[in-house]
Amino acid sequence: MQTIDLRSDTVTRPGAAMRAAMCDAAVGDDVYGDDPSVNRLQAGLAERLGFEAGLFFPSGTQSNLAALMAHCQRGDEYIVGQEAHTYRYEGGGAAVLGSIQPQPLANQADGSIALADIEAAIKPNDVHYARTRLIALENTIGGKVLPPAYVAEVVALARRRGLALHLDGARLFNAAVKLGVTAADVCAGFDSVSVCLSKGLGAPVGSVLCGQRELIQSATRWRKMLGGGMRQAGVLAAAGIYALEHHVARLADDHRHAAVLAEGLAAIGELRVEPVQTNIVYVHVPLERCAALQAHLAAHGVLVSIAAKTRLVTHLDVSTEQIDIVLRLFADFFASHGG
Ligand SMILES: *Cc1c(COP(=O)(O)O)cnc(C)c1O
Q1: Can you tell me the mean pLDDT for 250-273?
Q2: How many H-runs (helices) and E-runs (strands) does the chain carry?
Q3: Threshold 0.85, pTM exceeds
């Protein structure tokens, strides 16, 4: 029985061509700056995104944390969405390891943080307050693309208020492909961006932080301290280079699959499906059906974490035929257990 894994786009496995690129990679000790593959990945992506320098990390969590630590000093604060990965899903690293106070604000339905909320959260220069240093956005967030006009307003606000601006662009290329613009367009005006290679791009490991040279120098120090200085990391960087060359345009396939999935699920009366923009589908499942649905799908090789709000993620290793299989399994379940 084949497995269809819709839990996340992190589950992709490197294919034969990517493995061949990893196998052939020229390597060196990257802590000495000697790894030609890492250097090529970093320089290439930085140039592609419009920054001076890039830095390869073992994970997006560490890349975001090093960026926050490079932007902020102890006792500074950063403004961030309640639903943002850096605030909610990174173990509180900014506070725990960075001594950086998060100022979380509500995310609107479209994933944005209201400009008025940001303005109101910026602290005056007064000893009672933490020093507001940075705004962090995420794009895509929950599979939603931030409206470009909104992002431009946040860029202007940050400039006007003298704040730095970081983008968690774990799925930056999904946003670019959806908008039909370059990835550089999506991160224009930001001081730093963190991009995951290990999500929809299909590399096994790695994220790259891009920014101006001074910021990246500082992030390099934090990366070492956080234990992210890797040696012959070129075997991993080679996978990232391959992914950036071959797996960007095809993200449109994942978006199409997600749209087909959403449309098919929406036809089932008991399910409520949220609007889909990229590769993530949220579907609301009646609580009393969750356990049986999970078991039904698992029995047919479909891996997904069914919950009242279920997330289904399409990616490189999910085919059009498999989307059809999943839809049939959902339809069968709700037909035969009908209510
Ligand atoms: C996956 C992800 C990260 C980083 O995750 P790692 O698993 O640490 O690589 C950061 N931000 C967002 C939005 C993500 O989806």
Answers
A1: 98
A2: 14, 12
A3: yes
Q: What is the pLDDT of residues 315-332, one digit of tens each?
A: 999 999 999 999 999 999
Output DSSP code: residue 30: G
End-to-end CA distance of the chain: 30
Pocket test for ligand 1, best of 65, 168, 313 (most atoms within 8 A of CB): 168
Tokens 């968690």 belong to 168
CB of 210 within 8 A of CB of 186?
Answer: no
Closest CA to 83 of 173, 144, 21: 144
What is the model's pLDDT at position 337? Answer: 62
- For residues 307 and 244, give the distance between their C-alpha atoms in angstroms, rounded to a whole number: 33
CA of 64 to the centre of ligand 1 (A): 9
Cα 71 to Cα 39: distance, rounded to the nearest angstrom: 23
Nearest by Cα to 6 from 339, 325, 337: 325
d(CA 182, CA 174): 11
What is the whole-number distance in angstroms between the Cα of residue 60 and the centre of ligand 1?
A: 5
What's the CA-to-centroid distance between 222 and ligand 1, angstroms?
Answer: 18
CA of 238 to the centre of ligand 1 (A): 20
For residue 59, give the ligand 1 atom closest to its CA.
9
Helix axis angle, 16-24 to 234-246, nearest 10°: 140
Identify the H or E element spanning 128: none
Q: What angle do CA 140, 48, 154 make, to 5 degrees?
A: 45
The yes-or-no verdict on residue 338 having pLDDT over 60 is no
Overall average pLDDT of the 57-71 stretch: 98
* Percent of the chain predicted with pLDDT > 70: 99
339 has a pLDDT exceeding 60: no
Looking at ligand 1, which residue's alpha carbon is closest to its atom 2?
170
